[in-house]
Amino acid sequence: MFLKEVNEALDHKIVGGSDYGWNCYPDARFMDYESEYAHVGVLFSTVTQEIYSAEINDKADKYKPYRWLNPNYVDAYLAEAKQRGIDPNEAWDDTKWYDLEVSEDWLTKAHAIFNGLEFDDRVVVQVDLENDLILTLAMEAHKRDITLNKMMEIVLQEAIDRHVNELVA
To answer: Where do the domains of the chain lie?
Structure first.
């Protein structure tokens, strides 16, 4: 994700910015955005404009605070948070970040929250499958008269439920 994409998603409503004091992100700067509905903070490279971290929280506390962390820098961020004695999962006062793994998911949710629009609050998960497995799932979806996406939701939910049941047992 790059600064240009964030600026477009948030209508260029920049209200501030500052240097970033941690060392985990090279050439980092912080930028603030604000609308009547939400606050956004992003950390980005002043050299490449690549986003290191993007966070959004709505002013009405209607939604969980969403965060996206650049996977290329997560380990460095976590190591520095540990070194500083900071819980990397805490947004504020016992409130945890709701981490998103797909940058497009964050951009979509941020645009909606920032503009007071409704959105799908399900988390997008990137799944890489072999072609033969996709074909098998597509055929099963066809038998059930559902979409492949719906079939994937069913399969993933069943896997999650099995895992949770194993943990509880």
So the answer is: 3-114, 131-168
